[in-house]
Amino acid sequence: MRNLLAIEDDPLLRALMAPTLASMGYDVTSAVDCREALEALRGSTHFALMLLDIMLPLAGAFDDGHEGLEAGLEILRRVREDDELQHRRDVPVVVYSVRVGEPRIRARVEQLGGVIVPKGTDPQRLLDTMRELAPEEGG
Questions:
Q1: Radius of gyration (Cα) for the chain, nearest Å?
Q2: Fewest CB atoms within 10 A around its CB: which of 20, 27, 33, 138?
Q3: CA gap 114, 39 in Å, rounded
């Protein structure tokens, strides 16, 4: 199995995605807020892929004034730029959020090397993007 880090605060969406992701060969680690996301990222588990929402609860993860409406951007920035998370720099990141339609958000995600899939689009598009970025083992 391949490991996937799903950073999503919506419990219904996590529950709906879990069986599909498992059928795709992923062992899913879920983070419901920024604190849990950073704990998982600081750990030793190798992630084949990361699925990231933009709007996330902070849960005390940042002490430098970041807002929850864009907290996922700060997670992505830290993955790509912080020395502490340098072992995560090559992990493909799919940003799955309603906020990616905003030009400033879209530009920042693209600048940080995230792949955008807007929430509310055909779920097959998300699955196809994930397969492209992290092909199934043996496939």
A1: 14
A2: 138
A3: 20
- Scored b (16 or more CB within 10 A) or e, 61-72 reads bbeeebebebbb
DSSP 3-state of 137: coil
pLDDT digit string (tens) for 69-78?
Answer: 688 898 999 9
Alpha-carbon gap, residue 89 to 77, rounded angstroms = 10
**Distance between CA atoms of 43 and 77, rounded to whole angstroms?**
18
pLDDT in tens, 78-92: 999 999 999 999 999
Give the start-to-end residue ranges of the domains of the chain: 2-133
Domain 2-133 fold is Rossmann fold (3.40.50)
